[in-house]
Amino acid sequence: MKLQRKNRLRATALGALAVSGALVLTACGSDDNTASTGGAGENTKAASNIKCDDAKGKLLASGSSAQKNAMDLWVRNYMAACTGVEVNYKSSSSGEGIVAFNQGTVGFAGSDSALKPEEVAESKKICKGGQGINLPMVGGPIALGYNLEGVDDLNLDAATVAKIFNSKIKKWNDPAIAKLNPGAKLPAKAIQPYHRSEDSGTTQNLGKYLGATAKKDWPYEAEKKWPAPGGQAASGSSGVAAQVKQEDGAIGYFELSYASSQNISTVKIDTGAAEPVAATSENASTAIAAAKIEGQGKDLALKLDYATKADGAYPIVLVTYEIVCDKGNNAETLGTVKSFLTYTASEDGQKVLSEAGYAPIPAEINAKVRETVATLS
């Protein structure tokens, strides 16, 4: 009898744990834009601080999958406060988002990298009397997620990362990896590196990091298209994460929220600091805090220091931008764009980021974002 009761209690506990885990995954990765997140009191407070102003109708936006999980949370909170308004963010890629913006089919686009000069020139056809500008909204670490049975702690440096994704290091017990992980039981298993199949700002930011820190081993320009030979491709951050999750020996790159929601182990980066640096929101914030605005006028594009060696600064970071017209926005959606982006750049909106595995934009820069949003026309 005692044994039966003990087993029943254990089954109950495991069932509760499974439900709890399912709820966490739902909150982090769902495409449902109608559910709320967090506690009722917290959501009521967040919703009460959202100013709907002239928001109305339906707002379409698309682009970066890096910010998908943040957008899911923002959209839920915003639509709960602004009844009758629908915001639909299609998670695809930075490249696709910019194309959609420059075709005039979306109110704003999300991109993991700032507009190029030729893209700005193209935007002037849609932004009558103005041009596309970059508003930094989401920060965070690009995690190197891996799946290696028996290895729960892994350190890599820039050169080793470059060689892995450049198909120069092919086994997990390679001497270069073993040197960075003394005492670890590394198997003689083939490394299966995964990269994005479509143009991606996440790919470009990884390329910027490797170009700044391991140029000898990564002789490629930092572009949205994957440049190196070998490896396997998957669509979107979610696709890369899914492949890493299911394949022993795999490694890939994606935003921390994808690793956190699926319990994927992440690499610590040996930057030359006192200790290897883990991919956390806090460590990414330390790196992003040193960013400088390099955009001109209302453009707030940032310059990041990918070669930082500061203690506790995780170097593989990205900032996603919301791309809008400074002038010449669609009059039908302008009110909703301004209202929604005012919320995402607010203290409440940025607080959501930390809770979802992202890093808030530094307060000084974020204040300039709000000022700029208020002037959009």
Write down the overall mean pLDDT: 88
Query: Share of helix among residues?
Result: 40-55%
What is the number of domains?
2
Report the strand count. Answer: 13
For CATH, the homologous superfamily of the largest domain is named as Periplasmic binding protein-like II
Output the structural class: alpha/beta
Oligomeric state as shown: single chain
- Named at the architecture level, the CATH assignment of the largest domain is 3-Layer(aba) Sandwich
What would you call the shape?
elongated
- End-to-end separation: 73 Å
Number of helices: 14
Order of helices and strands: HHEHEHEHEEHHEHEHEHEEHEEEHHH
CATH topology of the largest domain: D-Maltodextrin-Binding Protein, domain 2
| Major sheet size, sense and barrel closure | 9 strands, mixed
Rg for CA atoms? 21 Å
Strand content: 15-25%
Low-confidence stretches: 1-44
Protein name: Phosphate-binding protein
Family: Belongs to the PstS family.
Keywords: Phosphate transport, Signal, Transport
InterPro entries: ABC_phos-bd_PstS (IPR005673), PBP_domain (IPR024370), Phosphate-bind_PstS (IPR050962)
